[in-house]
Input
Amino acid sequence: MKKVCVIGWPIKHSRSPLIHNYWLRKYDVDAVYEKLAIEPDKAANFISTLANSEYIGCNVTIPHKEAAFGAVLSRDQIARRLGAVNTVYLRDSQVCGTNTDGEGFLTHLKTKFPEFASPGSKVIVVGAGGAARAIVGALRDADVARIGIRNRTAERVRDLEILYGKAIHHIEDSALDESLEDCDLLINTTSLGMENQPPLALDIRALNRRAIVADIVYSPLMTPLLRQAEIRGNPILDGLGMLLHQAVRGFELWFGIRPEVSPELQDLVAADVRKASSP
Output
């Protein structure tokens, strides 16, 4: 039996086993997907020696994505650009890595809002960390030409400007309302709004009501930002879809089957998130 896993520290919260084991049953694949708590100082060794283990691949979550980048022997262009790996697979006994976070977000966006006109769209991204780096890269690959970054420190925004060029600009306090009025897509890439975290402190009263409001947080499913946007009539995009769609390519790399993100799977994972959130 083939074995795949997700590694992190901690790892108890991960929904990856729920997602991948659902697909393994659906497509009748003789394999199992597990979760392993790997301490930070042991992650690189686990990944670099994967070809000699019982696993044919793994997903990588916080805080091991950068260690995974350094541990794999082969990285694709996306992983090299991000300096982080979230999906590890074997090819000819060589440990390879990629990153599917940006792809997962963009696929979810295009699936729910196929009318979203990428090249001419104006996007605001809140945050400038690893998730923002991946999502901005996916948007640039989709030819989005204007991406404003709202972040506490301008230095992190400059890193994105260096990586992605003139399409990126820092949104100053004085320009926020004007940017919101002209925005087509607003994305929270921070952990603010997650359970046990404070809500995102962003006044969206100036946001035009056609703008899509997205949040990569999926626990809770309806974050304070999304609830605020829904009340004022903006279309919303939750974080659950990104979680599901970022898992697709890993399954395909390991088993040669491109799985479907079905309503049944969405309901299954959503129910698990709600159960974990209930008192």
About this structure: The CA atoms of residues 249 and 258 lie 7 Å apart.
